[in-house]
Structures are given as structure tokens and as C-alpha cells.
Fold:
Amino acid sequence: MNTSPELRRWERFSPAERIARAVLYILTAIAVIWSLKTIDIIPEFLYDAPAQSADLFKRMWPFDWAFYPKAIHNALIETFHIATLGTILAIILALPLSFLAARNFTKNPVLRWFAQFIFVSSRSVNSLIWALLFVAVFGPGALAGVMSIAVRSIGFVGKLFGEALEEAQNGPLEALAATGAPRSMILVKGYWPQVEPAFWSVVLLRWDINIRESAVLGLVGAGGIGVALDAALNNLYWDQVGLILAVIFTVVIITEIVTSFLRSRIL
Amino acid sequence: MTTPQHFVSRREPFPANWPVRIAWAGLALYTFYALSTLDVSWARIVRGIDQGATLLGRMFPPNTAADKLELITTGMLESIQIAVLATFFGILLSLPLGFAAARNLAPIWLSTAARGVIAICRSFHPVIVAILFVKAVGFGALAGILALIVATMGFVAKLFAEVVEELNPKQVEAVRATGASFLNVLVMAVMPQVMARFVGLTVYQFDSNLRNSTMVGIVGGGGIGAPLFTAYQRFDYDVVLTILIVIIALIMLCEVFSARIRRIFQ
Structure:
């Protein structure tokens, strides 16, 4: 044997990696323990939680089916419109910004930074909080809902589509430029065919999310089925609440099936 | 005069794609139809822009009175605690659920059942789940934590199941062939394969829980959402702005940290 055992010893991590990981584990433990110790939980409320939950389900069933044609159906259609229009508006607003954010299209770092800034601010504020602001601006109703869905989605669509643009291959773009194609044609015939699948997949993903989100916007007055949910909750009509939840569940499942079908067709 | 043959048979370089064009036209039609049903008019948008200017005027400057800041700090800390605890316990519950949902490990009846649970967790918005938990366990942070645990399970368990399904069995076999115990197999063969993705998922979910923990307070689930909603309803828009600035700053900070953590565990 000519190799000493020390030389053959195999280590997965360097000491620095080990320390970094250990520090993270310790920080996580500290965060969890700190949260557990200081969080304000009222234990008295917990004692009757099972009874309260049982009561909740007992009051929900049977559903108040007559409520569906009266108030839910129109609200449901409105929710669908809010989510779809919001997504469309978000696309219109996000497309130019995503070109600004793409490194291979925009050379100016200030413009790129500007687009990134808009994306981050759009994503940092929750859709419900955007809805609060837009209700204050446009008054209660679907318009506020559409605007909040759109503004919340700009960051998501713009960021992901901008990343797809950055992955576009340069060859077709240069070939088009060499034939003397104007910049607008390079966009339509050079970039678009390359990023189209990514575009639709991002849009479908966001639309799916927006259907879920638009269902709660009504809680702050931004239209859709959430308004009916809020009214039923405030009146303690749990049989109506149960029906609304069942309707939302059905719609979300249908949306998921539709988007996964469309995705398999497009990609 | 003869026409050269190869020019005649030249293919149109960009052929028209009629199904796609019809789809675009349909989308445009739908947009007009939906706009007409929604009571969206130009006059309303113009009035809204006026209103928006007033709103912005009342928001500035942000309110930094000491008592408000104290209120905001308490609310923000509670939001962070909600996010930390919901992520921690949510992940703990997602691990077994993810394994149960993985089709390559669990029997079919178990994976189907687990997938059903995941689908139910995923389909409701955290705010709706929070409403139900507020009724079940009362107002306060616990309702928010439970709601976000449900959201965490829906997301992490689903993706973790996919990670487990992509597991490479060869490495597991190789380690087992050396005579390793079950725990050794887990630590040396399974963990290295799934750890990076798992940490990525956890960090992403923490980000997402932090965002949502600022919101569950609107329906009584604890955190910064309650002071935010109160300030909004009292038209204290300068306080609203302060809270929004704090939320955005915290989330940006969190994004910087999560990028760093992901790099450590790559």
C-alpha cells in the first residue's frame, strides 16, 4: 500500500461550507424557539376548538342551494371576468417591461433596473392589499378587482417572461437583422416564435393563480364571489358559506384541469 | 421568357396560422364583452385617477409617530412569527405527506389519498382557510398559523412528492450494497439528492408565507394585517403607507437572504 489513509479520506463539504450550514441550522432553531416562546396564543380559545369546528360543519350542511341562482351565479361569472381581464391587462402592461428587463434586448442598466424595481414592488404587496388601495381609488366593485389582479400579476408575468426572453437564441435574431428587417419585425418573427411557449405557460400559470385570488378580493369590496362570501360570513349564514366554498373549490379544480390540458397542448 | 422553377415552388417563409389568429380575435371579443358587463367606463377611470391623486396626497408623508411605530413593530413581529412557525410545522407535516404522495414509494391507494389531501389544501386561498380557522380556534395568531400550515402543505408536499419521484434508485442501491443501515441510506443516498431542492422549496415557501402572513390579519388571523385594515378603515392613509413600506422592505430583505441561503445549500 503506497497511499496513506489520510490522503484517501473523502469529505463532502469544506470547513467553510460546514460552518455556513451549521450557522443556518442554529439560526433556524433560534427563530422557531423565539417564535414559539413569544407568540401570543390564547389557550382558552383552544379548549373548545373541536366543538367549534363540529358546530361549523353542522351549520354548513345542508347547503342553502336556493342561494346559488339568487346571488352566487352572477358573482361567480364576475369573479371569472375579474381574473381573466386582470390577467389580460397584466400581460399588456408587463410585456414592454419584460423587454426592458431582458439583458439581451435592453443594454441600458438604468432601464433594466427600473423594470426590475416595478416587478419587485408589484410582487411584494399582496393582491388583497392592492385591492384595498384600488377600492379606495375606484370605489367598491369589479374595476378595483381587475386593477389589483393586474398590478399584482405584472411582477410575476414580467419577471418570468423577461427571463424567457434572456434565454432566446441570438442566431435567428442576427439572421433577421442581416436581411434588413426592422426592429419591430425582429420582435415579431425573431423573439416571439422562440418565447411563445414560455409566454403561454406563464400566462396560464398566472391565470390559474388569479382565479384563486379573485375569489377573495370581494372580502375588501373589490367585487366577485368574495362579496357574497363576506355578506354570508357577516350574517353567519354558514349554509351559504359552505355552498360558496364548495363552488370555489369546484371552479378551482376545473381551472386546474383546463390549464393542465392547455399546457399539454401548447408545450 | 421562362420562369425559373425553383422560384415558383418556394415555400411561404411565415405561413399564416389561422387557428391562432381566430383565438386572438376571440380573446379580443371576450375582452370587450367582459368589460361591457363589468360597469367599467372611461368616466369612472378618469374619476378614479383624480381619486388616486387625492389618496396619494393623503398618504404622504408616511406617519412615523412613536405610538404608531410601536403598533407596527408588534404587528410585524407577529407576522414574522406566524411565517416562521407556519413554515416549520408545515414542512414537518409536508414531509410524510410528500412521501405518501410519491407514486414510486407509496402504494396506489395511499398516494391517491395523499394527493386528494394536497389538492384540497391547494385549492383554497389562505385567507379563506384563515376565515374557517378563526371560527374554529378564535381570533389571533393561531388561526393565521394554521391557515398558512395548510397552504404550506399544499405547495411543499406536492413538489416534494415530485422530487422523491425523480429520485435516482442507483445511488440508493449502491449505498445499501455497502451494508448501510436504513438511516445511513437516508443520510448518504436520499438526502444528498433531495436536499438542494428541498431547501429551495422551504425558502420559497417561507417567502410566500411571509407575504401571506401580512394578509391573514384582515380576517382576524393575527399579524400586521389587523392594524393595516384598521388604519385603512379609519382613513389613516399615512399609517397605511408606513405599514406598506415596512412590508415591502421586509420582503425585499427576505428575498436577499433566501438567495444567499439557496447558494449555501447548492
Chain A has one domain: 68-266.
